[in-house]
């Protein structure tokens, strides 16, 4: 057992999923349409024309999935709640059947001795709200707080850990400027407005969760560790822009109560000329948190890039400000992402250095890898690359703890192979294989490894 990294007593091991990626049952029990239904059903946007209509059919098979979690030995399970199951149009009547589903799931988890960790928004915005402007408009943040209050009133007594938003960077920038996520918009100002309204929605949701008296409240960010492609001043400037766009846009207001001082250099008049910020917003966004959720997968090597887009309104799109380049000498996963676990330690240590005592305890709310799994005739998968990825990243995480970062938990992404957004079902991140033709679940070697690693923590 000595090759397993060891963690401090009380450290929480978990597994994570998200509603649209696993639930299916897209038209059942009163669920309304989300922007991901619209996006995935638009020809040409998702690989193979895949959609989340059926996904892993978790909506019906959740008892089997909870049994897999129990056997794995995790202390916590992170799932997300589909807003359009609860408020089908995003505003107006609440759908009791949607609440009932999550209530059954939570009871099943508690009966298995697993603590539920609920994410309120993992990207499935009700289409009705997008039709009224989506995250570009402040009203969406207000509706988010109302939905949060409804969910917290029903589940708050049984769910100890709450995450307001998952990776708002993806919602704002992939969704409204790069167009690679729903709603597929390619805008400049719209994306910056979306980022701000997501922050406001977070602040309002924190308040709603506090009012409901829940135990722990946090947010999950996909913080990126950027490395300059060369030592040139231009590449180092590109790193500052990338850091602003990926990280500081969230961490500065949330942890420090200010907007990034590099924002003007990064966005010019798109940010200076904005009118979506209001007095009092920073106080709202800067509410104290019990933890910060960090999702980490890979470092990003950035090189300076000229504006390739003639339309200045599109200047916030990541590919107009810098280019991601390959990282030499390391393995890349099936996503093409470099595997460099030491950058995981580096990110966390830097974050602690940057924010000091303003950094709340950290939970790693996602980490894992997509690999080109080959299933044997019986469906088994010897995913040695994924096992190494997990072992090396957990070792790197332990190093961050040793360096003084207060990390309390780790959730592997993902329990199941699932709908990987624009990549459809082509990319498999699960530690359990899903045979989509039969919906059979087959634990991979990485599942067995993670199970032994968790068991090895017991004194
Ligand atoms: C993160 C998402 C998650 C999953 C992983 C691979 O950005 O939060 O839903 O797609 O990446």
TrEMBL record:
Reaction catalyzed: Hydrolysis of terminal, non-reducing beta-D-glucosyl residues with release of beta-D-glucose
Active site: 167 (proton donor), 366 (nucleophile)
EC number: 3.2.1.21
Cited InterPro entries: GH, GH_1_N_CS, Glyco_hydro_1, Glyco_hydro_1_beta-glucosidase
One MF term in the entry's GO annotations: beta-glucosidase activity
GO biological process: cellulose catabolic process
Any Pfam family matching the protein: Glyco_hydro_1
Binding residues for substrate: 21, 122, 166, 297, 413, 420-421
Record PROSITE patterns: GLYCOSYL_HYDROL_F1_2 (PS00653)
Region Disordered, annotated ranges: 362-382
Keywords: Carbohydrate metabolism, Cellulose degradation, Glycosidase, Hydrolase, Polysaccharide degradation
GO cellular component term, pick one: cytosol
Family of this protein: Belongs to the glycosyl hydrolase 1 family.
The protein's name: Beta-glucosidase
């Amino acid at each position: 057992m000595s090759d397993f990294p060891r963690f401090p007593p009380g450290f929480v091991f978990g597994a994570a999923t998200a509603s649209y990626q696993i639930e299916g049952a897209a038209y059942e029990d009163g669920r309304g349409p989300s922007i991901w239904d619209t996006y995935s059903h638009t020809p040409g946007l998702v690989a193979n024309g895949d959609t989340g209509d059926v996904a892993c059919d978790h909506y019906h098979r959740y008892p089997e999935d909870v049994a897999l979690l129990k056997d794995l030995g995790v202390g916590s399970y992170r799932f997300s709640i589909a807003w359009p199951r609860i408020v089908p149009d995003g505003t107006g009547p609440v759908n009791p059947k949607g609440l009932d589903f999550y209530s059954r799931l939570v009871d099943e988890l508690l009966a298995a001795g697993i603590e539920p960790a609920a994410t309120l928004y993992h990207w499935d915005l009700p289409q009705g709200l997008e039709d009224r402007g989506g995250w570009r408009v402040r009203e969406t943040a207000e509706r988010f707080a109302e939905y949060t209050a409804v969910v917290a009133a029903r589940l708050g007594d049984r769910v100890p850990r709450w995450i307001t938003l998952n990776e708002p960077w993806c919602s704002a920038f992939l969704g409204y400027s790069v167009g690679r996520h729903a709603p597929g918009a390619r805008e400049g100002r719209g994306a910056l407005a979306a980022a701000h309204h997501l922050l406001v929605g977070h602040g309002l949701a924190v308040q709603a969760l506090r009012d409901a008296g829940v135990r722990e409240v946090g947010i999950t960010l996909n913080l990126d560790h950027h490395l300059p492609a060369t030592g040139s001043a231009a590449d180092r400037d590109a790193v500052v822009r990338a850091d602003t766009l990926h990280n500081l846009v969230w961490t500065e207001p949330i942890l420090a109560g200010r907007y990034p001082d590099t924002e003007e250099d990064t966005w010019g008049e798109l940010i200076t000329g904005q009118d979506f910020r209001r007095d009092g917003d920073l106080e709202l966004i800067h509410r104290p948190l019990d933890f910060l959720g960090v999702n980490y997968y890979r470092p990003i090597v950035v090189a300076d890039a000229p504006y390739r887009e003639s339309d200045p309104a599109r200047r916030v799109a990541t590919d107009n400000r810098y280019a991601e380049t390959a990282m030499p000498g390391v393995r890349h996963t099936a996503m093409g992402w470099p595997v460099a676990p030491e950058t995981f330690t580096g990110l966390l240590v830097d974050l602690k250095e940057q924010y000091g005592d303003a950094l709340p305890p950290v939970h790693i709310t996602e980490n894992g890898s997509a690999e080109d799994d080959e299933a044997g005739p019986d469906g088994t998968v010897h995913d040695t690359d994924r096992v190494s990825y997990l072992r090396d990243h957990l070792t790197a995480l332990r190093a961050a703890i040793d360096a003084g970062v207060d990390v309390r938990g780790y959730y592997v992404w993902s329990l199941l192979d699932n709908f990987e957004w624009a990549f459809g079902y082509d990319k498999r991140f699960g530690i359990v294989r899903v045979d989509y033709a039969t919906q059979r679940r087959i634990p991979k070697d990485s599942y067995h490894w993670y199970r032994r690693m968790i068991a090895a923590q017991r004194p």
